[in-house]
Every structure is written in structure tokens, then in C-alpha cells.
Amino acid sequence: MNQYEYRHFLIRYEDRDDEFAREVIKTAEATYDILSGDFNIEPDTELFTLVICSDIEAFIRDTGKTAGSYQPWMVGNANYEKRILCILSPSASDRSDDEMLSVVKHEVVHIVFGKVSDKSPDDISPLISEGGAVCLAGQVDPELLDKNTRPDASNLNDEDYFYGNDGYNYSGAYMGFLMRKYGNEAYKNVYAEIEPLEKYLYDGFENDAIDSFRAFRGDIALERI
Ligand SMILES: [Zn+2]
Known about the structure:
By secondary structure, this protein is α/β, with parallel strands linked by helices. 44% of the residues lie in helices and 11% in strands. The longest helix is centred in the N-terminal third of the chain and has 21 residues, at 18-38. It folds into two domains: 2-113, Glutaredoxin (3-Layer(aba) Sandwich); 121-216, no CATH class. The two termini are 27 Å apart. It has a five-stranded mixed β-sheet with strand order 1-2-3-5-4. The structure holds zinc ion. Zinc ion is lined by residues 106, 110, 130, 133.
């Protein structure tokens, strides 16, 4: 495996991912810097390990999953406590390089916000943790947001409901709208549980979020990368 140290990440990858790895490290470093600045979060001094897994077997091993807990849609993983991010090589999935670079941004969001809360990301509401990662990584698809079938934001706090109701896309739209309307500090405070999310929700919040995303057509924060 190749291994190189950069400012925030130590990247590891196999030869055949050489070209992709260059894009990955550029994206990861820039995302980390931009987010730390935008959300006023002090960067860590210790490096994070960023592994490009050449196949699904390596992905399962490096993420600490089991064959039983792995799902085919899982292509990235971040663990702040273990200080590791795993990205599946595009050669081992049906995703394009660009889609995978959005996954890199998504996982880096999880890593940056790992510092904001003492809780493990698994114990934070998926509405808040996944919603922030999805919108900041530019992964909201406005075409798939429907005011007639949309979930209530508060229902997306429940993990089972989240996965069964297009939780990634809607939570991304809701948290992106929260950032746009109330500012990054508001999102950070909600993430850290300094303020309750309910403080910012109101009747019509979800529909306003959907209108807002359709008007902006998606991505809000990381267009500079
Ligand atoms: Zn995520």
C-alpha cells in the first residue's frame, strides 16, 4: 500500500487507485479546511487515516463491519474516535469518481463534527448528523423532494423511520435550510446539543426547506472545492 502524510490526513491506497487518490486527498484537505473555518471548529493536530479500499472485502475489514452488517450502498465510512475514514474505490463500485468525491466530502463532514459533540455519531440523531453531511457534501437531489410525501423533520430522528423514508435526502434539505436561514452557528449548536432543534422548527419548515432547495438547486457550502 502507498502511504503519504498531508496536513490533516494520512492517505493509504493501492497503486491502481493512484489517480483517484490524488483527487481524494485534495478534496479531503480542502473540505476539512473550509468546514473548520466556516463552522469555527479548531482543527485537530493529530492526523486522520484515510484509506481507499480497493474492494468490498477490504472495506468491510477496514471499517470494522461484518459481512452481515455490510449493505451494498455503503461506500464510505468515518469513525472520529478511531480517527479513520474509509472510501471504497470507484473501481469496486458502480459510482463515478465525482460521486465518490462527494462521499469523501460527506465523510470529512462527519470527522470535523466529531469534535463538536462528545457523543458517538451513532448516538446523534441521523436527521442532524446525516443531514449536515449530505447537504454540505452537495448530495441533496432537489428533484426527489416532494411536498406531498415528505416526512416531518422530527420523525427523522428515529433511525428506522429515517432509513425507510428517504431520510438522507430530506434531512439534507432540512439541515441545509436550517444553516441557510439561521446560520452555521445554529447548526453547530444543535449538533452539540447546546440548543434544541425544536427551537428552529416551525409549522411549514419542511415545505419552506423544499422550496428553498428547489430554488437554489442543491449544494450550499462546499462549492469552492
Ligand atoms: Zn453519513
